[in-house]
């Protein structure tokens, strides 16, 4: 048995059947080229008889995309099969995929056909398809809810009629991995001519088992997996291409198999599909989600810095991602912080890491996303502090006639405690006045500006204060997620620069 698993991509057919995922002709052509670059073996380009647009999509993909086999889906009826054959005319490698439902539910309630009629339609469908192309796939829709003996009969008849691939779909995502293994195993043991065809599987994700069921089919001997990028498809979707491919690659030691997919193209193709369909991939989605190669907790970040395999079973580059990201936040530890400080170009050995780490934890408790600019602000902002320390501050403000006031508690150079309050034109003005009272310094404010230095609603604000004292100009800088606190921090910076200057001069 071959050790290659054929990747049959049905993003443009089953994937497009999911609500919200309809694509224009131009989008399908673009996506098909991306699937070609990804290296899938078969592209199911559409259902040619469904509409003129679907026909044109299949025809243009057949004409333009070289490399993969181009496939078109058809019911077991003459018109569908002829339309599929016509649309595929210009393909370098072509396949017609005919299907009919085999389960009792579908036979009785949907098709209103007997077992014998279904077999007859299957045989006629395969034979007609075979009159146009050599490569014919036959699917027993709802195979996993079909009586096993009958399923084996249909499969045998389809192979006898010329089918070269036999697909066993779990159309409604009902089966389990063990059951799927047993179904494929049963067919291998009870279909006399099974060796003449490649066994395929096509699993839906209604119970979240599509990938697990597909892998079980592969373990039982299936050598084609039908799947879609980002797992899009009817209802809960299909087996996700990126997951099955990376499972086979990452666990080659277990499966002993391979696919022809160029895995570094997975992320670009996945992103293209998301952009085209407008459907956002959840952050925690395996392989392609934003968090799939991101680490936020200190113990994991330390492990990753020590050896990437401690917490990653795949390298991000193997799916086309630039790198792992160590996301700094409230759960991060010192190792990750030091790493970031170094990455930002600072000499970590000469920085007060204890102090930066304490400030970082305080910031992370208030702010969801800590950016590089935040860290930079923490490193730069902690230089040259003192001798005055702002221990506490409270401000009130409001609209209309509300009076802005501020109360501050400041520790002086000699450890003395200074508590003062003041009112002002706004909370910043009130706070500055209270600080002047507490420190006994009268500052002439020349300018105050506040800018956002990181992104998002919880961005860090950077305040710059220009002031004069005893005929000299001073400049102070402060950062915080709170703009009043940033302004006060900048003002305290001015106070401290003045104090240090005075101390030096005396
Ligand atoms: C599991 C799957 O994903 S199957 C693929 C599903 N994809 C699609 O349906 C997308 C494309 N479909 C379409 O555009 C339309 O359904 C068409 C053009 C194919 C058919 O449209 P209509 O002729 O209006 O039929 P409608 O879709 O309402 O009903 C399906 C008909 O096909 C019959 N049918 C269903 N499956 C098959 C089959 N595999 N082989 C033969 N006949 C079938 C049904 O019994 C029903 O027949 P009836 O019209 O004689 O009652
Ligand atoms: C057409 C078939 C293969 C299908 O999509 C299914 O059964 O889910
Ligand atoms: Mg399907």
TrEMBL record:
A Pfam family per the record: LeuA_dimer
SUPFAM superfamilies found in the cross-reference section: 2-isopropylmalate synthase LeuA, allosteric (dimerisation) domain, Aldolase
Listed HAMAP family: LeuA_type1
Name the record gives this protein: 2-isopropylmalate synthase
Region (Regulatory domain): 389-506
Organism: Gallaecimonas pentaromativorans
Function: Catalyzes the condensation of the acetyl group of acetyl-CoA with 3-methyl-2-oxobutanoate (2-ketoisovalerate) to form 3-carboxy-3-hydroxy-4-methylpentanoate (2-isopropylmalate).
CC terms in the record's Gene Ontology section: cytoplasm
Family: Belongs to the alpha-IPM synthase/homocitrate synthase family. LeuA type 1 subfamily.
UniProt catalytic activity: 3-methyl-2-oxobutanoate + acetyl-CoA + H2O = (2S)-2-isopropylmalate + CoA + H(+)
Alphabetized UniProt keyword annotations: Amino-acid biosynthesis, Branched-chain amino acid biosynthesis, Cytoplasm, Leucine biosynthesis, Manganese, Metal-binding, Transferase
Single GO term (MF): 2-isopropylmalate synthase activity
Subunit structure: Homodimer.
Alphabetized Gene3D superfamilies for the sequence: 1.10.238.260, 3.30.160.270, Aldolase class I
């Amino acid at each position: 048995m071959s050790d290659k698993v054929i990747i049959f991509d049905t993003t443009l057919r089953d994937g497009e059947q999911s609500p919200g995922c309809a694509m224009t002709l131009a989008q399908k052509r673009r996506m098909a080229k991306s699937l070609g670059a990804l290296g899938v073996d078969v592209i199911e380009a559409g259902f040619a008889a469904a509409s003129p647009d679907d026909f044109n999509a299949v025809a243009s993909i057949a004409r333009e995309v070289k490399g993969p086999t181009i496939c078109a889906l058809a019911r077991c009826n003459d018109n569908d099969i002829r339309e599929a054959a016509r649309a595929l005319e210009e393909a370098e490698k072509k396949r017609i995929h005919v299907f009919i439902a085999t389960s009792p539910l579908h036979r009785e309630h949907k098709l209103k056909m007997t077992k014998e009629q279904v077999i007859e339609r299957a045989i006629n469908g395969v034979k007609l398809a075979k009159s146009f192309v050599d490569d014919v796939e036959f699917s027993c829709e709802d195979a996993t809810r079909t009586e096993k003996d009958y399923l084996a009969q249909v499969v045998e008849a389809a192979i006898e009629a010329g089918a070269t691939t036999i697909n066993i779909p779990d159309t409604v995502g009902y089966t389990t991995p063990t059951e799927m293994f047993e179904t494929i195993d049963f067919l291998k043991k009870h279909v006399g001519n099974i060796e003449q065809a490649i066994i395929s599987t096509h699993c839906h994700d209604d119970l979240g088992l599509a990938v697990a069921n597909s892998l079980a089919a592969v373990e039982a001997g299936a050598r084609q997996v039908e799947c879609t990028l980002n797992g899009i498809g009817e209802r809960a979707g299909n087996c996700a291409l990126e997951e099955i491919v990376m499972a086979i690659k990452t666990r080659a030691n277990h499966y002993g198999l391979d696919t022809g997919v160029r895995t570094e193209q997975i992320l670009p193709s996945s992103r293209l599909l998301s952009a085209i369909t407008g459907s956002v991939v959840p952050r925690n989605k395996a392989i392609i989600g934003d968090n799939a190669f991101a680490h936020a907790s200190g113990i994991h970040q330390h492990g990753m810095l020590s050896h990437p395999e401690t917490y990653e079973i795949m390298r991000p580059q193997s799916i086309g991602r630039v790198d792992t990201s160590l996301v700094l936040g409230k759960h991060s530890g010192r190792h990750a912080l030091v790493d970031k400080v170094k990455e930002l170009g600072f000499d970590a050995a000469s920085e007060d890491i204890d102090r930066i780490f304490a400030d970082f934890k305080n910031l992370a408790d208030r702010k969801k996303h800590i950016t590089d600019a935040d860290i930079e602000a923490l490193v730069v902002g902690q230089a040259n502090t003192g001798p005055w320390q702002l221990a506490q501050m409270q401000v009130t403000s409001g609209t209309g006639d509300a009076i802005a006031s501020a109360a501050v508690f400041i520790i002086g150079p000699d450890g003395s405690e200074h508590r003062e309050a003041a009112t002002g034109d706004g909370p910043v003005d009130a706070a500055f006045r209270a600080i002047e009272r507490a420190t006994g310094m009268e500052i002439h404010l020349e300018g105050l500006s506040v800018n956002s230095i990181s992104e998002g609603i919880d961005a860090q604000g950077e305040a710059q204060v220009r002031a004069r004292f005893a005929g000299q100009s001073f400049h102070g800088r402060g950062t915080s997620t709170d703009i009043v606190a940033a302004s006060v921090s900048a003002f305290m910076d001015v106070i401290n620069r003045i104090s240090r200057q005075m101390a030096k001069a005396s």
